[in-house]
TrEMBL record:
Claim: Transferase is one of the keywords in the record: yes
Source organism, top-level taxon: Bacteria
Domain Calcium/calmodulin-dependent protein kinase II association-domain: 34-151
Protein name: Calcium/calmodulin dependent protein kinase II Association
InterPro entries to which the protein is assigned, alphabetical: Ca/CaM-dep_prot_kinase-assoc, NTF2-like_dom_sf, UCP028470_steroid_isom-rel
Annotated signal sequence range: 1-24
Entry keyword set: Kinase, Signal, Transferase
One Pfam family here: CaMKII_AD
Annotated organism of origin: Caballeronia concitans
GO MF term set: calcium/calmodulin-dependent protein kinase activity; calmodulin binding
Keyword flag Transferase: yes
Amino acid sequence: MMNHPPKRFAIAIVFCVASGGALAKTETCHPASKKQIAALFDRWNDSLKTGDPQKVVANYALRSILLATVSNKPRVSVEDKLDYFKHFLESKPVGTIDFRDIMIECNTAIDAGTYTFKFGDGSTVKARYTFTYVWDGHKWLITSHHSSKMPEGD
C-alpha cells in the first residue's frame, strides 16, 4: 500500500509552483523606438569610417559574437573582433541599409535586413545582416552580428 501525502500538502505544493513567478525579479524596460535602434547601425557604421578597430569593437557587448561576411571564423573574444576589424577596415568599408526590419522587446532589439558595402577601391558587396542588441543599463550594445554575402549575387 502506497503512502500518499495528505490533500492539504498536495494543494500547498500546487500553490507554491503556481505562484513561483511572484518571486521572480522584475525588470525595468528601457524604452526604445525603431528610429533609435536604426541609429545604432549608423553609430556602428560611423565607427567603421574612423578606421579604428577599437572604436568599432566598442559597439559590442563583452559577451557577444561576430559572424562576419568575409571570415569563416566566429569572433567571440574582444581580441578576435579587433583582429577581424583591423583587416576589414583596411578596405575602407562604408555600409548602407537596403532593407530592414526592427523588432524591439524589453531591453533587447533586433535589426535585420540587407545592406551594401562600398569599399575604397569602388567595389561593392551586398549582404544580409542581423544585429541583436541589449540595453546594458547605460547604452545599447551588439550581442550578435551576423553578416553573409547574398547567395544569388546582384
